[in-house]
Amino acid sequence: MIKASDIIKSYGETSVLSGLSLDIERGGIYGIAGRSGAGKSTLLRCLNGLEGYDSGSLIVDGVDVKNLSSKELRSFRKNIGMIFQHFSLLERLTVYENIALPLRCWKYKQSYIDKRVRELTEVIGIPDKINHKPRELSGGQKQRVAIGRALAMEPDILLCDEATSALDPRTAKTIISLLKEINSQLGITIVFVSHQMQVIKELCNDMAIIEHGRVAVAGSVDEVFSNQHAALTNLTGEDSFVTDDMTTIKVKLNGYDNGAIIPGLAAELGIDLIIRGNKDLTSDNLNEYIISYSEKNKEEVIGYLLAHDVVIEKYDNDYGKKGSIQSDAVYDPDIIMTQPGTV
Amino acid sequence: MLGDGYSSYWWRFFENIILPSIWATLRMLSASMILSFILGFILAYFLILYGPQGLKPDKRRYKILDFIVNSVRSFPIIILIVAISPLTRIIVGTSIGEKAAIFPLTLAAAPFMARIIENSLKSVDRQLIEAARSFGASDYQIIMKVMVKESVPMIVAGTTLSTITFLSATTMAGAVGGGGIGAVALNYGYQSFNNTVLYTSVLILFIMVLVIQWAGDWLYKRMQ
User: Quick one: which of A18, A49, B100, B201 is 20 to 30 A from A79 by CA?
Assistant: First the structure.
């Protein structure tokens, strides 16, 4: 559906995309990860022609974006919805008017607009907020409205630019499941750009990691995560949330089905932890976890672990701090737990 | 101290000289503000369209517009009125009086309004414009349906500000034959050594400023 080959783009002296090639299939959810400045947002903007590129070819739905006139580009964009990090709604318009805006721009009949907007508020799950203004909504609800607006023209593709990055993890999760629903029920191909690896892991089927304007690694999410490509560790190392006042321990589980112990740790105690699985899958220590916790939670954590019959080892306290490499950081235990075998 | 004699004296001036000049000032002000708003809006539209961060950047056209706006704004209003009086005579037929003042006032206020509207439109979030682009809105639709729509409160506040600025400009027009309350304060007040007329006019201008500001604030709140 989307085929990018050897795309090069630069702003003056700064090269943003340097020979990027990518293949995105119809009907899936494709994640594009990378640090800020890696070129992922620029790539996304090239897909719907918000930005041009210097050379290479970019075929979206059989059309080369570069060859479109500005008029053709406008109608081409009807087919591609887009949502943003900060929702980008018109603050002075109601939810209804925000969703109706694309339809009004394309001069649809009022009766059709009315029907379509009501349909969409059902899809995004906030029919009761239809006459509210964005400032009366929560972040998650705002993003829902933005999704509704992006779907108004019945697009085949939905582009998401850091769509969950401004939301708290719990809300992000609800947006993720809405996007999954949209993908499976409406058959819309989703391209999801994010620096949040956990969100991509949760949401996407396939993914690519972009480094220095190039695809460093691409493949199915499972493949990318289990192969532990250097690009992935580079990226997650950046996500480290370990701070100086945290203690890091290594925990060995005894016995087999201990899958619930560590996830339960955060859920039961309701505290913030960083839990990583064993990064070296080739070893036989599949039941090892590395846990970082704040000093103030020490007693609770240790108490919980001892009660569940595990072996605790002291661990290098610098592990996971900015600059060092780690396999995976989970800062909100509520979203996804890192389990041995899936890392 | 001020008996019946004084109040009837005051009323005589008020009724015959000041009151008509209030209406003249209001007519001058509203006509020049409406016209300059329209002109300023058109200018702002193209400044936003062709500006360096604009929807369709065009350096050459932007520079030309920018130059026009800046050069007209650099004229002090009183000089502008005098300087373009031949032009005023050609267009309006006379260079004296209320109607003649509307032309130079509009000309002076238009670039001012253009900057105010341009700045209001510029304050609209770039990502919102991208969002509008992403669903296929044209440049015209982006400006009218998104940027203008979002910045109405700022435009209202800016228009209030310039209405007050140009209220004082109408009084300066009075100095060079413009008519209105400024002319009355100068000719019948200051130059005739009539403090009653002078200070009554000042008081009325003060009240006008208050009313305009109050109305602007009220509208601003309603538009938010």
Answer: A18
Give the span between the Cα atoms of B131 and A136, in whole angstroms. 21
* pLDDT, tens only, A262-313: 666 766 776 766 666 544 433 345 566 777 777 777 788 888 877 777 777 7
Distance CA A1, CA B60 (A): 40
Residue from A140, A145, A138, A103 nearest A124 by CA: A145
Q: In Å, how far are A5, A66, B146 from B141, measured between CA atoms?
A: 33, 23, 7
Chain A closest-CA separation from residue B222 CA (Å)? 11
Q: What's residue A143's pLDDT?
A: 95
Residues of chain A below pLDDT 70? 237-245, 253-260, 262-264, 266-267, 270, 272-288, 314-343
Q: CA of B54 to nearest chain A CA: how many angstroms apart?
A: 14
The DSSP call for residue B18 is: I
CATH class for the domain made up of B18-223: mainly alpha
Q: Which residues in chain A have Cβ-Cβ distances shorter than 8 Å to B125? A: 86, 88
Short-list B160, B163, B137, B130, CA closest to B30: B163
Least trusted range by pLDDT, from A46-60, A305-319, B1-15, B49-63: A305-319
Domains of chain A: 2-235 (3.40.50.300), 240-314 (3.30.70.260)
**pLDDT of the residue at A212:** 85
The answer to whether B15 faces chain A, any CB pair under 8 Å, is no
What is the reported pLDDT for A34?
A: 86
Question: Could you tell me if B8 lies within 8 Å of chain A, comparing CB atoms?
Answer: no
B205 Rama class: left (phi>0) / alpha (psi -120 to 50) / beta: alpha
Where is A321: in which H helix or E strand?
A: none
SS (H, E, C) A262-318: HHHHHHHHCCCEEEEECCCCCCCCCCEEEEEEEHHHHHHHHHHHHHCCEEEEECCCC
Q: Tell if the CB–CB gap between B149 and A90 is shorter than 8 Å.
A: yes
Minimal CA separation from B157 to chain A, in Å: 16
Choose from A71, A75, A84 for mutation: most chain B CBs within 10 A. A84
H/E element holding A11? strand A2-11
Q: Please, how many CA atoms are within 13 Å of residue A61, restricted to the half-sphere of its CB?
A: 14
Q: Which of B127, B136, B141 sits opposite A88 (nearest CB)?
A: B127
Neighbours of A338 (CB within 10 A): 24
Contacts of B135 in chain A (CB under 8 A): 77-78, 81-82, 101-102, 105, 149-150, 152-153
B193 lies within 8 A of chain A by CB: no
* Contact call for B132 and A92, based on CB within 8 A: no
The per-residue pLDDT for A226 is 80
Non-local CB neighbours of B41 within 8 Å, separated by 6+ positions: B113, B114, B117
Q: Say how far apart CA A144 and CA A305 lie, in whole Å.
A: 40
Specify the amino acid at residue B182: G
Contact A139, A166 (CB under 8 A): yes
Domain coordinates in residue numbering, chain B: 18-223
Q: A8 forms bridges with which residues in the sheet?
A: A18, A55
